[in-house]
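FAQ: What does the model actually see?

It sees only this:
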Amino acid sequence: MTTTKHLIMLGDSITNGFDGTRDLTNNLSYYLHQFLTDWDITNAGVNAGSITGTTERDLTFQVETHSFQDYQLATLFFGTNDFAHADAPLSQVSQTLATNITRIKEENPNITLVGILPLKRFDGGVDNQTITGLGQYTLDELDEALTTVYHHFNIPVLDWRTVAPDLLTTDNYQTTLADQRLHPTATTYHKLAFILADFLHQHHLN
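And it is asked to produce this:
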């Protein structure tokens, strides 16, 4: 008899499955389950969630209100709202992420964590990777800071820039993103899930 394994996905609207207008049923976790059929997946993504925020949407609240004892795997997919909508400095983003990783690991030392970097954004019709956000850092700088924190805890990092450089580009974002800015179409969510499943297989899953 195969024992069901349990994955919890923590994140913002991309994890939840928002397309810029509505929450999609055919979202990241829906498609991921098609590739990871022996896993039970809890989608804990909340629209507008951030690392540094203090509301029910955000990472700290999510970590405080979920029990991680029964999960073998957790994904952390945050950062885009810190860049676009928060003025907290990069040091605060890093510290808050580290604090919450520590909390999860203290609650369940055996859990496997996977960090997922933010997707590219195209606010204003341009690639935002080198544009400075409210916290006075670029998306590229955020990616590097998050990677540093994850690596400090020996957590593997899915970096879309390197594993799927052609997924979202200035040439295709108008068709791959439902709102032509940030939120994927159902087809793109399927592609994200395929890439994530492959990444998880490579790094952790038997």
